[in-house]
């Protein structure tokens, strides 16, 4: 057993122990579904960021950066991160006021005249979308374990699955938010440690940026538009920018309203926790992506020939870092995967047993037991699917993630800010948003249609959803119950207003602005200036090996 | 240093946090800072 295997095993054991400890405190359904609605800011930040960053970020997007599209990821992230604050202020805090157990239940209660079918439609999107996402994350984590420990993929798949399913099954959300926070802290530190070692191996920060700015085999590697041209995914800077902005908006909506992000606010102990967590999440996401994007891109200077770009961070760990940090990086990547997987598994299961097949019993413990059985069944199905579906981490997650932006995005905000939306409008908005995005994506994937970059399936889905909600709502009537429920959502609890808590929340928002100013300063000094200096020097001969191999060197 | 796409990217990246913080600040001030603003969202 090598050092990576030992590190990964220890980390999984830690999560199991923590999950087991947290699971003992689960007595009621509220504990299992929403962690007793008592989570402080640190745990909400931890679970927000950890469930968002998965193998998608640590394998998919680092691979994408390595290919030469890092600047697009940065543009995307800057827009995407703002979604946290927009989501918390314009949806999340109202969602928390509803005191529902799931986000789908909120939609059902808000549109009570056809509450059951709205809840089921929302619940089904969770089950389909998050199962696909869970599949991708499980496979991503299994690939890592298989790569670094030399055990067969099927065995690593089972180890990974058992690793997250066991503590999620036992402890539900109460365990998930604690393990998520541990994982968040781990992979945030690891992202910067990795950056340090990668940059040390490429000649220091400024030399690296200058060298990357004139890197010939992937021209434009760190220019504002990234690598473009006939051999790239995008031919022109405008196409590249359009894609990044559209994906940024789409993912901004994902972090604002998607079930695996907005549901975290149901666990917050108060509304200040919701807003503070969102502000801190913005800063955390922006910081982590700087480390990941520049770290992965810099690997080009050492080995520009890694064939499977999604392995770039694994390659860097094995080849550019001493053993201990390398093991830490591997456990950090695994943490990012497991944290998302545990959240997705819990949400799919909660939706199955609460939104699709509600269990009508007054017995809290019995309901809790049914929820755990459901989660086990869902977990087994995911494990089975993972054996047959070939891994494609980035594109599956980009596809599944944006499904929620298009099917839930317009409805989530309308549900809070408009009193003209009917239950039928809500139902058909979810359906058309989901199908519009999914069908367009499938047709484009199988090359039946060729969509221009500005007509991304997300754009088709979200437009269809918004238009459908408005048109169908015009043909119906909003009930008094729906009006009064919305009015209730707008009543700010008196305990939340004024005092030290409000002052502290204001401080956090000011700190976010100060962090932004510091980031501008850092990015100008450490990126824009050395980039300009590098451009003035002669082009760099890259060191691409003739065979262009991604084999590990040790 | 002349204005370039890279400089704009550098500024835009941090500006996202400033904008998000400003929106949060305004909303907290409006809804939570003072008792007299309670129930004022409608």
CA distance, first residue to last residue of chain A: 15 Å
Which shape of chain B, going by the Cα principal axes?
Answer: rod-shaped
The fraction of residues in strands of chain A falls at under 5%
The helix/strand order of chain B is H
Q: Which stretches of chain B are poorly predicted, pLDDT < 50 over at least 5 residues?
A: 37-42
Mean pLDDT of chain A: 89
Average pLDDT across residues of chain B?
A: 84
Structural class of the secondary structure composition of chain A?
mainly alpha
Order of helices and strands of chain A: HHHHHHHHHHHHHHHHHHH
| Principal-axis shape of chain A | globular
Number of strands of chain B: 0
User: Helical content of chain B, roughly?
Assistant: 55-70%
Keywords:
heterodimer, A: 554 residues, mainly alpha, 76% helix, 0% strand, disordered C terminus, B: 42 residues, 1 helix, 64% helix
What does this structure look like?
The complex is a heterodimer of chains A (554) and B (42). Chain A is mainly α and 554 residues long. Chain A is built from 19 helices and no strands. Chain A starts with a helix and ends in an 18-residue tail after the last helix. The model of chain A is unreliable at 543-554 (pLDDT under 50). Chain B is 64% helix and 0% strand. Classes of the chains: A mainly alpha (554), B mainly alpha (42). At the A-B interface, helix 4, helix 11 and helix 19 of A face helix 1 of B.
What topology emerges from the helices and strands here?
The complex is a heterodimer of chains A (554) and B (42).
Chain A: H1 3-23, H2 29-34, H3 41-52, H4 55-98, H5 103-110, H6 115-149, H7 153-201, H8 205-213, H9 237-257, H10 259-262, H11 271-298, H12 312-320, H13 323-356, H14 364-388, H15 393-417, H16 423-445, H17 457-474, H18 480-489, H19 499-536
Chain B: H1 5-31
Overview in brief:
Chain A is mainly alpha-helical and 554 residues long. In chain A, 76% of the residues lie in helices and 0% in strands. Chain A contains 19 helices and no strands.
């Amino acid at each position: 057993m090598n050092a990576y295997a030992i590190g990964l095993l220890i980390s999984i054991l830690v999560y199991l122990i923590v999950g087991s400890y947290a699971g003992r405190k689960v007595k009621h359904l509220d504990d299992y579904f929403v962690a007793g609605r008592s989570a402080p800011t640190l745990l909400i930040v931890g679970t927000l960021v950890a469930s968002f960053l998965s193998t998608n970020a640590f394998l998919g997007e680092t691979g994408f950066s390595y290919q030469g599209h890092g600047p697009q990821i940065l543009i995307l992230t800057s827009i995407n991160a703002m979604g946290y604050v927009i989501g918390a202020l314009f949806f999340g805090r109202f969602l928390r006021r509803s005191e529902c157990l799931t986000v789908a239940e909120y939609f059902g209660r808000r549109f009570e005249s056809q509450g059951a079918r709205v809840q089921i439609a929302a619940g089904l999107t969770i089950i389909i979308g998050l199962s696909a996402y869970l599949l991708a994350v499980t496979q991503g984590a299994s690939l890592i374990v298989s790569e670094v420990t030399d055990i067969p993929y099927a065995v690593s798949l089972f180890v990974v699955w058992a690793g997250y399913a066991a503590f999620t099954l036992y402890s539900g959300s109460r365990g998930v938010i604690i393990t998520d926070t541990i994982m968040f802290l781990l992979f945030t530190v690891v992202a910067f440690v990795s950056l340090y070692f990668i940059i040390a191996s490429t000649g220091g920060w400024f030399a690296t940026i200058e060298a990357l700015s004139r890197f010939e085999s992937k021209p434009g590697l760190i220019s504002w538009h990234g690598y473009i041209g006939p051999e790239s995914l995008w031919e022109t800077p405008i196409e590249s920018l359009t894609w990044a902005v559209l994906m940024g908006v789409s993912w901004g909506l994902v972090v604002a309203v998607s079930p695996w992000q907005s549901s975290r606010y149901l666990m917050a102990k108060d509304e200040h926790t919701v807003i503070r967590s969102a502000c801190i999440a913005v800063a955390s996401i922006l910081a982590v992506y700087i480390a990941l994007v520049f770290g992965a891109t810099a690997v080009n200077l050492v080995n520009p020939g890694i064939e499977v770009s999604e392995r770039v961070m694994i390659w860097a760990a094995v080849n550019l870092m001493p053993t201990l940090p390398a093991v830490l990086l591997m456990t950090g990547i695994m943490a990012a995967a497991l944290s998302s997987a545990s959240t997705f598994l819990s949400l799919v299961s909660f939706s199955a047993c609460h939104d699709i097949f509600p269990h009508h019993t007054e017995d809290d413990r019995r309901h809790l037991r049914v929820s755990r059985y459901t989660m086990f069944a869902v977990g087994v199905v995911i494990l089975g699917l993972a054996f047959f579906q070939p891994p494609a981490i980035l594109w599956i997650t980009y596809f599944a993630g944006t499904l929620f932006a298009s099917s839930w995005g317009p409805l989530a905000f309308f549900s809070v800010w408009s009193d003209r939306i009917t239950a039928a409008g809500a139902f058909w908005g979810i359906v058309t948003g989901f199908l519009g995005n999914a069908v367009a994506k499938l047709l484009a994937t199988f090359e039946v249609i060729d969509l221009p970059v500005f007509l991304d399936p997300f754009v088709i889905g979200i437009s269809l959803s918004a238009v459908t909600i408005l048109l169908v709502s015009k043909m119906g009537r909003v009930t008094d119950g729906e009006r009064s429920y919305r009015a209730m959502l707008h009543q700010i609890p008196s305990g939340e207003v004024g005092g030290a808590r409000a002052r502290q929340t204001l401080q956090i928002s000011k700190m976010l602005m100060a962090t932004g100013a510091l980031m501008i300063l850092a990015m100008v000094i450490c990126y824009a200036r050395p980039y300009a200096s590098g451009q003035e020097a002669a082009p760099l001969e890259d060191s691409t090996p003739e065979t262009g191999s991604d084999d590990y060197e040790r | 240093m002349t204005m370039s796409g890279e400089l704009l990217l550098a500024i835009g990246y941090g500006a996202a946090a400033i904008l998000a913080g400003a929106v949060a600040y305004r909303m907290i001030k409006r809804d939570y800072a003072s008792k007299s603003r309670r129930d004022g969202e409608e």
